[in-house]
Amino acid sequence: MSASTTWLVTGAAGFIGSNFVRLALSERWCSRVVALDALTYAGNLENLAQWTGEPDRFAFVRGDVADPNTVDRVFAGHKPSAVIHFAAESHVDRSIEDPAPFIHTNVTGTQVLLGAARAAPGSPRMLHVSTDEVYGSLALDSTERFHEDRPYDPRSPYAASKAAADFLVRAAFHTHGQDVIITNCSNNYGPYQFPEKLIPLAIMNLLRGERVPVYGDGLNVRDWIHVEDHCRAVRACLEHGRSGETYCIGAENEQANIAVVRALAELTGRGESAIRYVRDRPGHDRRYAIDPAKARHELGWEPCIPWKEGLADTVRWYRENTSWLENVRTGEFLNFYDRLYGAQ
Ligand code: NAD
Ligand code: DAU
């Protein structure tokens, strides 16, 4: 992409969004990022702290992606040349408790953003970041993997809301010829992940001398990819993907949950007694696995962070960033926006 590009990144204060912004700005993938984020419980402006003093390269807008006035204002004010849509309610357990915010942000938010991108001068490309969970669940004893042509079969309210969003994106391409791309990625891990998800929750508990809750029999399988490998795939899709296409992203790294937790217990010097089996998640999908052949062959993208190295680096990051973890655990991070921008 040319040097004079402004990328609108929604959900930029979350886990993957903030890693994407850090790479995009430090490696100069674009010249400027406009971050739009509502700063929900999962949005942490501390994740973007290094850029908040660089107005030529970075602007932060606190706002709801489902609010058309806010979104129209961002498009009119910043004229983005591309949109990367990460903003979402992202935690399956929360969607089981209360699906309403998932419909608001994931479905309505995507619809509002699509409309604004289409109406903006030049109709900038919109890359919609989705999940492998839309494809459903695979059997433990099969070698089947998810691929782009697999029919959708979402099984949690979270997955259903992401599937609805994906269909809206596909519909915008077919109905309006809008320039859109969808990525469906597997489970991410790495720095800045909110400790409600398995890996950061386990690390936090292990470092604090507490036990890690493992759902059910611990044999559910997830296909883990380092967040930086995912972000590089998003960039490759944005820059080289074909309009209207879907790309499945994964690192071909299937791990049983119990194996992940045991590896983390070892890395933190804790033993088997740090693990506690708890009641299973309702409707718990058994196995996810991605076949990333299309992204590899069409885009030349390859994941390059080996699992063992990535996991050890991740544990190191949480060990070295105890104040980040403590701010998240205590809720102190919620004051960060007011400290930087003043209460509104
Ligand atoms: P996250 O929960 O860490 O971050 C979500 C961000 O979106 C937060 O900063 C939050 O404040 C913001 N947000 C929520 N509602 C908003 C709204 N209405 N308006 C504006 N901003 C809002 O999520 P994540 O793990 O970084 O996931 C990012 C995206 O990637 C999501 O779309 C998710 O579905 C997808 N995804 C995640 C994974 C994963 O393993 N984490 C894997 C595949 C795909
Ligand atoms: O597959 C991609 C998806 O991965 C993303 O779309 C979601 O946004 C992301 O949250 C993630 O969903 P999962 O439900 O797979 O992630 P989670 O970290 O919640 O759980 C991973 C596995 O670990 C899952 O099988 C449930 C289990 N688990 C989770 C937690 C939080 C436990 O056993 N104990 C726990 O405490």
Q: Topology of this structure?
A:
Elements: E1 6-10, H1 15-26, E2 32-37, E3 58-62, H2 68-78, E4 82-85, H3 92-97, H4 100-119, E5 125-131, H5 157-176, E6 180-185, E7 188-189, H6 198-207, E8 212-215, E9 221-223, E10 225-226, H7 227-240, E11 246-249, E12 254-256, H8 257-267, E13 275-278, H9 293-299, H10 307-320, H11 322-330, H12 336-341
Parallel strand pairs: 1-2, 1-4, 2-3, 4-5, 5-6, 6-11, 7-10, 8-13
Antiparallel strand pairs: 9-12
Helix pairs in contact: 1-7, 2-4, 4-5, 6-8
The chain binds nicotinamide-adenine-dinucleotide and 2'deoxy-thymidine-5'-diphospho-alpha-D-glucose.
Tell me briefly what this model is.
The protein contains 12 helices and 13 strands.
Detailed description of the structure:
This protein is α/β, with parallel strands linked by helices and 344 residues long. It has one domain (6-192, 226-253, 289-306, 331-341): Rossmann fold (3-Layer(aba) Sandwich), CATH 3.40.50. The protein is 41% helix and 16% strand. It has 12 helices and 13 strands. The chain has helices at 15-26, 68-78, 92-97, 100-119, 157-176, 198-207, 227-240, 257-267, 293-299, 307-320, 322-330, 336-341, and strands spanning 6-10, 32-37, 58-62, 82-85, 125-131, 180-185, 188-189, 212-215, 221-223, 225-226, 246-249, 254-256, 275-278. The strands form 4 sheets. A 7-stranded parallel beta sheet has the order 3-2-1-4-5-6-11, sandwiched between helices. The structure holds nicotinamide-adenine-dinucleotide and 2'deoxy-thymidine-5'-diphospho-alpha-D-glucose. Nicotinamide-adenine-dinucleotide is lined by residues 10-11, 13-17, 37-40, 42-43, 64-66, 86-90, 105, 109, 129, 131, 162, 185, 187-188, 194.
